[in-house]
Design goal:
290 residues, single chain, 10 helices, Nucleotidyltransferase, domain 5, 2 domains, alpha/beta
């Protein structure tokens, strides 16, 4: 299976899906599992994935070794993902992913109207279920790894999709094979994005050890964050500058800038700098060049 791109909807994200996602199951009852990868790291995207299979067909996924991605090695996750994409599984398994960039996450969390990571995650799950419906998949069962309290999350999903049987559960990736499959795909997609990252900013100071896994506790990630700070422009787009780890280092290593509102000064001015546009910083677009 290859993948295709579609235009994102509610939040700005890249959506990718398997070739067999559209009309998957030919109207037969299907089960969907939803999970994410990359919620905690300070680097890179968060990837949300829905995996789909025919109802009562989850045993096929178990046979190829799907499990909670956190208990599998990177090599094993890659092997399972390639097997899931193989021709033998083409008629029994499909997927769709939404990848939310680091700068989008930061802009959402730092905007005037706060948009929490939980809300962002919930919206990604909703968009994936809508995508399944729009692609004529007969979704009857849905299993979701919870983000935040499970009961209100499940009630919200039931309200939006009343014809589906929905279970929101802690550790769903370890309980339900279809969620395990989603977990593996999300992790593989995020790892590949991080591993193959190219910096649109051009030359970025990456230490010999690389930038690691992206988790704040990773020594290589820490070293990268220490060395990648630009004193004026801060971090490249790979970094979630809304994370406390990045915020503390910016306060320590970057120069202080003061931005004066032209609205306060009684003047009209709109900054069109690509720097702000690329980082979705429209909430501070009216400012002076001090």
């Amino acid at each position: 299976m290859t993948s295709a791109q579609i235009k994102p909807t509610v939040i700005e994200a890249v959506t990718e899906f398997s070739d067999n996602f559209k009309d998957f199951g030919s109207s037969m009852p299907c089960a969907i599992g939803i999970d994410e990868a990359g919620r905690g790291p300070v680097l890179g995207p968060m990837v949300y994935t829905c995996a789909v299979t025919l109802v009562n067909n989850e045993n096929m996924l178990t046979k190829i070794g799907v499990d909670d991605s956190k208990v599998l090695t990177e090599a094993k996750r890659e092997e399972i993902f390639e097997r899931m994409k193989g021709i033998l599984l083409f008629q029994i398994f499909g997927y769709a992913c939404r990848s939310v960039s680091a700068q989008m996450i930061s802009a959402a969390m730092l905007g005037r109207t706060k948009y929490s990571l939980n809300k962002l995650s919930h919206d990604c799950a909703i968009e994936l279920l809508k995508l399944a419906v729009d692609n004529n998949i007969n979704v009857v069962d849905v299993y979701v790894d919870t983000v935040g309290p499970k009961d209100p999350y499940q009630a919200m999903l039931h309200k939006k999709f009343p014809d589906m049987q929905i279970i929101v559960s802690e550790k769903a990736d370890a309980k339900f094979p279809i969620v395990s499959a989603a977990s593996v795909i999300a992790k593989v997609k995020r790892d590949r994005a991080l591993r193959n990252w190219t910096f649109p900013e051009g030359i970025v100071n990456v230490p010999p050890g690389g930038y690691g896994s992206g988790y704040p506790g990773d020594p290589n990630t820490k070293n990268f964050l220490l060395n990648a700070v630009d004193q004026v422009f801060g971090y490249p787009n790979l970094v979630r500058f809304s994370w406390k780890t990045a915020e503390v280092l910016l306060q320590r290593k970057a120069v202080m800038c003061k931005w004066y509102s032209f609205a306060f000064l009684g003047k009209k001015y709109s900054m069109k700098s690509r720097f702000f546009a690329d980082r979705y910083l429209s909430n501070i677009s009216k400012c002076s060049d001090f």
